[in-house]
Amino acid sequence: MKRALLVNPWIHDFAAYDFWLKPLGLLYVGRAMEEMGYEVVLVDLLNRHDPDLPRFTKVPKDKRYGTGKFPSAIIEKPDLLKFVPRKYKRYGAPPEYFEWKLRDVGRVDVIMVTSTLSYWYPGVWETVRFLKERLDAPIVLGGIYPRLFPEHAKKSGAIVFEKGDLTALPSLLESLGLPSKEVPRDWFELYDPMYELYERVGYLVFTTTLGCPFHCTYCAVHRLWRGLRKRSPERVVDCIEKYVELFKVKDVAFFDDAILADTNHFKEILRLILKRGIKVNFHLPNGIHARLIDEEIVHLMRECGFKTIKLGYETTGELQKKTGGKVFDEDVVRAAKILTKAGFTHEEVSAYILLNLPGQSVEDVLKAVEVCLSEGIDVSLNEYTPIPGTQDWYELTKSGKIPPDVDPALLNNTVLPYWWKHGMSAEDVQRLKRIVQERRLSTLKACKGSPQLSDRTG
Ligand code: B12
Ligand code: SF4
Fold it and tell me: Is the beta carbon of 257 within 6 A of some atom in ligand 2?
């Protein structure tokens, strides 16, 4: 039997936090490979809950709901990031763990490495190098980085899978002289992500849909997935139930881009969760559509035990319309009222506000913060990053504000303000963050309870 090794690579960055990060795409790849007759093994360098990890490094304790800090080590900055006055780290298991794992895995016929954020590529490249030096098998790199930057990803030394849809996988395997079988077109309906490859996890992550019907100018989703694909509520809930039972976890997060795009679909999932009596904390770390929230959804979410709800707000002002009009202030206010009336608190609900969007003013950000705080919900600031394939990217490259061949590492949202002259400076960003933090503390203290910092990057 042929063997496939799946690898979730290291992250190299100035900051990273395990905010329910699971390599969901890779777990689907694992299922497809299993269906093709491969024996599949996994090395997840970012699984903080791996029982073997404490033998190699000190693992920071879990914070809220299974999230937490990754083990990390300071590493040298690549030359092009030397100007950033912050420590650069490798996040994830130490190299000794990886070495030991690979010895344990033994012979494999193909290695499949995933990737998430494109500006995390230095960690992907190091992982590929590490594998090349130790194993003699073709290495295939897939995920969001090669989908957004295929030419750049080819320089990693791996064979690049530029597609998103798994139906393209068999022809890639054939080109490598490896056995393959057709992947069904409705694999998203049929396949469960292959969680059984783990010995232990601290939480589970699922997606009930792929894609999004909206077209925000800063978002790459329509480049990644065409239209909206939905998995049937029965299969979604069967899958949750099966793995919650297997791993006895208390926390489940959804990664959907647009979980409310079909509200009836989501309501049906929630009703089934209640009917089956699945008792875990649910989390929505990816911003949901404030305009699509209604009282019924909120009551169902409350009953199901949702503990983290993020609203995608992004900005106030003129830019709301210019960036696609997915949400206006009044939608956020209405959603916040429904949520707080149902008993959700500012510890459970916050709105993502993008910072440094092209054309955004400091006032836009501050006004968005005020709207949220005055409605009793918290805010999470996210620093903007330009993404290829988006309308913003098209305009920024056309007007010469971003060089089209820019190194993806420079687009890291922490790095951008240190060199980009067309947005806020690093000082502006720091100052704005401080003001917002003070506003949050004073407002949220007034409504009791201790506010938690909840930026996506942690
Ligand atoms: C869930 C999610 C998150 C989660 C965590 C994701 C994670 N695991 O790291 C949260 C909410 C924390 C998050 C945060 C952010 N995210 Co995000 N996120 C996503 C989202 C919605 C889904 C990712 C996902 O799991 N998809 C589902 C799986 C099934 O798809 P997939 O991984 O692509 O896998 C498929 C294929 O690629 C392929 N595949 C995958 N691996 C492999 C490997 C091999 C070998 C092969 C053959 C195939 C293959 O097979 C899979 C099945 O078809 C994507 C958008 C999207 N729809 O993809 C944005 C996205 C990745 N995020 C994005 C951004 C910008 C961010 C933020 C930086 C936002 C901000 N500005 O603050 C933050 C920062 C994160 C951080 N520093 O930790 C951008 C990435 C842009 C970029 N340059 O890379 C995206 C594309 C959205 C967007 N705005 O356009 N995110
Ligand atoms: S930001 Fe959200 S609503 Fe807008 S296109 Fe992306 S996923 Fe869809």
Answer: yes
